[in-house]
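Minimal example, chain plus fe (iii) ion.
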Amino acid sequence: MPHDSHDHDHGAHALLPPDPALRVRALETLLARKGFVDPAAMDAILDFYENRIGPRIGATVVARAWTDPDFRAALREDSTAALAAEGLLGRQGEHMVVVENTPEVHNVVVCTLCSCYPWPLLGIPPSWYKSDAYRARVVREPRKVLSEFGLTLPEAQSVRVWDSTAEIRYLVLPMRPEGTEGLGAEALADWVTRNAMIGTGLPERPQ
Ligand code: FE
């Protein structure tokens, strides 16, 4: 739940499970039991928005930044303005900061308070992004959490964790992988995974 849309006064919700995930699960169970929704169809829709449609927009932005120095410079100068010029801002992503990975610094994004996420660029957040474990641990022990995602960074590269808020959402601009020199922006976008743009992964050769 975005933390601009609730006021942390849970008095009115006292009868509901406190955790938003539990609340959603309870609602889903109820709807499925009454035959209003098919859980398999719901999973397919979620998968579509979590893994395909949403992140593809962010991947296009990353690929363009890799291939268009002017766009990259504009993102550095003022990410929000550069994205607005492309019509890529929207609800849950009105103010964006693109943070650039370098050999010296690897960036990771979290929302420690709830689940703020750049919806217009990445779609809806994956469930792990909203989990208490990720939100608490990535701040305390980022390298350990990243290793659990299969990402082991060189010791020389420091890790910077960015805490999203209702006001500012972050997108990680990963480093362009070796071996992609001849590729154009469209082919490059296929390398950009959702997790690479959250910082819990790196770009990968497409299957
Ligand atoms: Fe949040």
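Strands lie at 96-100, 105-110, 158-163, 169-173. The first strand starts at residue 96 and ends at 100.
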